[in-house]
TrEMBL record:
Protein name per its UniProtKB record: G-patch domain-containing protein
Natural source organism: Vanilla planifolia (Vanilla)
Gene Ontology molecular function: nucleic acid binding
Record-annotated membrane-spanning stretches: none
Pfam families named in the record: G-patch
């Protein structure tokens, strides 16, 4: 057998050219068949704008084929429109208004349905679903939360201990533990002068 270094190199170059051609042609087909990203697709909705804070009345002239009628549309204030939607920025009210809902009238085609929205009831963490409890409004819950945070023995901790105890089901004025048999008054730290040791009285 004869050794031909040029022949092997030629074969190697031909092989490299063929594979690079295949890779290029494959990449080209892949790019042509790929879809556009969703962000580049056109948007099919129109924004309604910003809700106005002041109340106003608008007259809209509706032209019909046979008659011309005027329809009065009243806008309610933003505070009334989304009074029950504190955390949703009025999304539900705007959606209902787009579908033709007028505040004060009932739901449905002829207005025979519910007039007032269903309010969410916040249940205490430690109570189960079968327990009946006195319903309180969100304002009362906030007042109770502020009272718990401002405990007299927590001047420098910003109410951390009271918050933690409230999360675990502790009610101020009752004892600690499952059956409220524990200590009622919290332990207080006594500050001693520097010159006296721990055992001094």
């Amino acid at each position: 057998m004869e050794f031909h270094p040029g022949l092997k190199q030629r074969r190697r170059l031909i092989f490299q050219r063929q594979t690079s051609w295949r890779i290029k042609s494959f990449r080209g087909k892949k790019k042509q068949s790929s879809r556009q990203p969703y962000a580049e697709n056109p948007v099919s909705f129109v924004s309604c704008g910003i809700m106005r804070a002041d109340s106003a009345a608008e007259l809209i002239a509706a032209d019909s084929i046979n008659t011309k009628t005027e329809v009065e549309v009243t806008e309610t204030t933003a505070s009334k429109l989304g009074a029950f939607e504190v955390h949703t920025k009025g999304f539900g009210s705007r959606m209902m208004a787009k579908m033709g809902f007028v505040e004060g009238s009932g739901l449905g085609k002829s207005g025979q349905g519910m007039v007032h929205p269903i309010e969410a009831i916040k249940r205490p963490k430690s109570l189960g679903l079968g327990i009946e409890f006195a319903e309180s409004s969100a304002a009362e819950v906030r007042v109770e939360r502020d009272q718990v945070i401002g405990a007299a023995f927590e001047k420098h901790t910003k109410g951390f201990g009271s918050k933690m105890m409230a999360k675990m089901g502790f009610v101020p004025g009752s004892g600690l533990g499952k059956d409220a048999q524990g200590a009622i008054a919290p332990l207080t730290a006594i500050r001693r002068p520097r010159s006296r040791g721990l055992g001094a009285t």
